[in-house]
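CORE FACILITY INTAKE
Project code: CF-77B
Contact: R.S. (postdoc)
Sample description: multi-component assembly, two entities in total
Requested service: structural model of the whole complex
Turnaround: standard
Below are the sequence entries exactly as provided by the requester. Do not edit them.
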Amino acid sequence: MKSCCTQAGPGIVDTPARPFRIALVGNPNVGKSSLFNLLTGMHQHVGNWPGKTVERRDGLVMVDGRSAVVTDLPGVYSLTPYTLEESVARAFLLREVPDLIIDAVDSTHLERNLYLTLELLELGLPVVIALTMSDVARHAGVRVDAGAMERLLGVPVVPIAVPTGEGIATLLDWIARAARGEVAAPPPGSVRYSPELEAAIEEVEGRMPAGEGRPRRWLALKVLEEDPEIREGWLPQRSGPWDEGLPALPGGALAVADARYLWIQQHLPRLLSRGRARSAPDPSAVADRIDRWVTHRVLGLPITLGLLALSIWGAFRVATPLQEWIEAGFAWLGAELAGAAGLLGAPAWVTPLVTNGIVGGLATVAAFAPLVAVFFLFSGLLEDSGYLARAAFVLDRLLGRFGLQGRAGIGLLIGYGCNVPSVMAARTASSQRVRLLSILVAPLVICSARLVVISFIASAFFPGGRAAWVVVGIYGLGAALVVLAARILHGSVLRGEEEPFFIELPPYRLPRVRNVALYAWQQSVHFLSRALTIIAPMTLVVWALSYFPSGSVETSVLGRLGQWLAPAGRQLGLDWQMVVALFTGFLAKEGTLSSLSVLYAHDGAPTGLATALRAAMSIPQALSFLLFFAFYTPCLATTTTIYQETRSVRWTAVAMLYPLALAALLAGAAYRIASIPGVRALLAARVG
Amino acid sequence: MNPRMLRDTAAPARQPLPLADLGPGATGTLEHIEAGCGLTRRLAALGLTPGVRLTVVAHFGGPSIVSVRGMRLALGHQMARRIWVVPDR
């Protein structure tokens, strides 16, 4: 983490070692990310904020032959944080003190956007305003007078239109000038509020302890807003009870917000001129009409579920062939390497080490890549078009009663494809509690890898159309368990006040290919780099456990462990091979099938795995195995992601163990019930 | 039907109603918000300050979409019950 000392301010910028640093700040949905993408192109880096799992994007922009670092801060409405993302953004501005703030202001929502601008102007840092969506505003017949705005706010204002690149050159020019020290910070108090508020600010400023390094006016305003973090954290206790008997501003936070909006309303008419709209239908009327359908009381939910199902299905259509090529590629690589090892006369264990341990691990990670990429591509499309916020609103009505939020619901639906992005999607929750709740229930959603195994075993044991009903039944049970687990966690360990849900509905717009593609690319690279460092070594470890010391799985460490656990497995009707197959399923769920084929059909009988399984398992056993497999411990990739997101060994353990207990319970019950002679006969008759 | 709404139509003085009780197309003035400090601050930053004019764009028997200061906010049922609005005639 960077130092948080206060000397690193703009005063001592020009040591050549320190790059010029720019913070890109703005409300959500103002086109900030498009602007960031345009400025920095492929020179971007995605990671997490130190110690926080909020996404951080940094990029390089070249000005005057010198590179400047741009940090794309999470979208914020105000500098008094409400969400984790907003805390992160504010902490960056206060602690790391960028050399320039680019304030992205949406020209079509000037009134609300200027609220944040007023707060930024009080920070005492150089500010350049990028007036985004200029083209959209013009289209709607709104003209923002940039000159008047410059005169009013005392900072450069550059109208921007990302699709045409309008204004980008001017913005780069301002960045260059700022880097040369030619852009001054606006003087404190350049925006003045009502006499009552000004008197209160003056009073607080006068009493505040000296030398805090932040503009006193800004701090005074935060004190008046009763911002607990500033009052208790930033203003040191050493100064003693300086704020004792401070005259309270009637209305506190509301009074300050009110004053800011009042100021904006007074000056707004000077900034805007309304011409004739160029496009015939009013875009907001069109949006209203669409909204009436997609958020409809009855139709909203089917539309949302349908669209999400469509995108998950689409992701599979696109990703599966890619996945097959990648797997084939790695199989070829493994074979080549094994051949080479054989030629070089390496010991016998080298070949399986290379093919199964190393190449196998890399293949697992690589095979995930297209799926994760396409998922992020689809969710990027839904997000960029403005639809995702509507879906969240619709789902919130359904999930609110279970302590979950609408946004979490979207994450859970993504989980039907793959639990990994689903766990990552919990980031958007408004509180740590809801976020944890969403992460913990995510593994109960049956992902596509499990679907492959479940449908194979179901069709091996339940011929004809009956297999489909078994699969549907397991899915239904899964959905019920998600809701039930959420309800239980919400009512016990993660008890908390119901989160009131509200969300800004962004305007609908055509998704930008560049934004969506960059987003998917970055998320995938981010995922892969994390996966490679954990999944690949873990695969190697499990391979070693299944190979050494004897070279055959039956007498390996894993085989012995399976046999040692066999008595426990017997309670559920599982023999030791099934136990071992479940172990390997922890690496990647679809791996269970290959383990089963190694363990049961090792003689390479041409009859295939389904026949081998039917010979080895009874129907109660198969049912037990199906239920256990569907709900036990999430796969390694998901577990890793859960750890990365929660940074807690304890919660990761909970996420691994409670599904295991649940699975054992369900499998045991299914085995017992199916073993009752009457039921057994019924099942057998149905199958026969 | 909400009894408050009935009373409102009968009485000349305009009573504040929770936003959740306003039908689509209704306009009004925000009176107050029943929420803790943090939430109130957040809503204020979003432009939901007392005295602001708002329009109900859509209403789903509790959850609502409102238009305020040129933006569109979707509010869950819980939220829509905490925002009190004096409706226009």
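Facility notes:
- The interface with chain A takes residues 35, 37-47, 49-52, 57-58, 60-63, 65, 69-79, 82 of chain B (CB under 8 Å).
- The first helix of chain B runs from residue 3 to 10.
Invoice: internal transfer
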